[in-house]
Amino acid sequence: MAYAIAVSKAWEELKKTTSAVNHTVLFLADEYNIDTQKQEVLSAASGVPAKEYVSILVLHYLSRALSGLPPVSGEWVSFPQLPGGQGYYPTFQKRVIDRILSKYKTAPRAIAESIKRLRAKKTELADCSFVFEVFAGVQVLITLWRGDDEFGPQANIHFDKSVQEVFCTEDIVVFSENIAAKI
After folding, report:
1. Is the pTM above the cut of 0.85?
2. H-only helix segments in 68-107
3. Could you give the CA distance from residue 27 to residue 38 in angstroms, rounded to a whole number?
4. Strand pairing partners for 52?
5. What are the φ/ψ torsions at residue 73 (nearest 5 degrees)?
6. Cα–Cα distance measured from residue 176 to residue 148, given in angstroms and rounded to the nearest whole number
7. Rounded mean pLDDT of the chain?
């Protein structure tokens, strides 16, 4: 019930953008069915209701998508470059970056196996790096570097600059935590 107000507001916002009853949204390779009459967000695979924080993300995304998503810019920004990101960065670092780093610091290439299901595309921007779509049109770049004699291992997440036109920074934190948990 911690998210009840946010879920309610997300449904209200969605009702302003569509009169259609049924929608489908892909979030990190998981499909969700949205029924606006019943106000349900269900996993398409299992029919189980989505967790509240997932429902909020899906509803926020769907509202924005129905209004028109901005084009992917191709410009990567770090979390501190997002509105309010600088002040929240220590928490983001702990909940997201450090979590990814703790899993892959000794073997960054091992991430390749864990993200296959997320349909990521390999890039050559670091020792190991991938771009994937969190939602259609919402791209994220994960980079990992092995440590050496001079620097320890590092990890980072960058976002296509257009993300700030789709989600608020708090939503970006939540989906980033979800990414860290899934990979």
Report:
1. yes
2. 85-92, 98-104
3. 20
4. none
5. -85, -25
6. 27
7. 91
